[in-house]
Design brief:
Distance between the termini: 87 Å
Structural class: alpha+beta
Number of strands: 7
CATH architecture: Beta Barrel
Helix content: 10-25%
Strand order of the largest sheet: 1-2-3-5-4
Order of helices and strands: HHEEEEEEEH
CATH topology: OB fold (Dihydrolipoamide Acetyltransferase, E2P)
Length: 155
């Protein structure tokens, strides 16, 4: 009888220990392509986050470590101040890569100052809008449109 009581007590203690560990064990969060970046749910939030909003054509790109530097010829400015040619730097390694930015492409870019000579996208999924057949489109994984006033300013 004593042996059974000891076994039952040991089993109960073991189950409580396992349950306690499981309750405090860190759970992994679902992966997200923009896990370390802000996500803007509205047009207003997105546009307010940008220090500059420009339209331009990517003239050339080159790798710089895990990043790409795109030289953009600015054709219109909707917000902020940008020179006629700017460098936009973005990640080219890891999950946070803008999928659609290509040399020769025409884009509306939502930018934040990186340093005195370069810019970053506000984030890699919402920081660029391809211009296709003269029409501003959302990039993949971005459902937030630009405002009519920004679209008009860069058209």
């Amino acid at each position: 009888m004593r042996k059974h009581r000891w076994l039952a007590t040991a089993t109960a203690v073991m189950l409580l220990a396992v349950a306690g560990i499981a309750a405090f064990w860190p759970r992994s969060s679902p992966s997200s392509s923009t896990a370390d970046e802000p996500y803007y749910a509205t047009t207003t939030e997105l546009e307010q986050s940008a220090e500059a909003i420009v339209r331009g054509k990517v003239e050339r790109t080159h790798k710089q470590g895990d990043e790409t530097v795109a030289t953009v010829r600015v054709t219109a400015v909707a917000k902020g101040v940008a020179g006629p040619s700017i460098d936009v730097i973005y990640a080219t390694a890891g999950p946070e890569i803008p999928e659609g930015i290509r040399r020769g492409g025409d884009y509306v870019l939502l930018l934040q100052v990186r340093n005195e000579s370069a810019w970053n996208l506000v984030n890699t999924t919402q920081g660029y809008y391809p211009v296709v057949d003269g029409r501003i489109t959302t990039a993949p994984d971005n459902a937030v449109p630009l405002s009519a006033s920004v679209q008009q300013s860069v058209s």
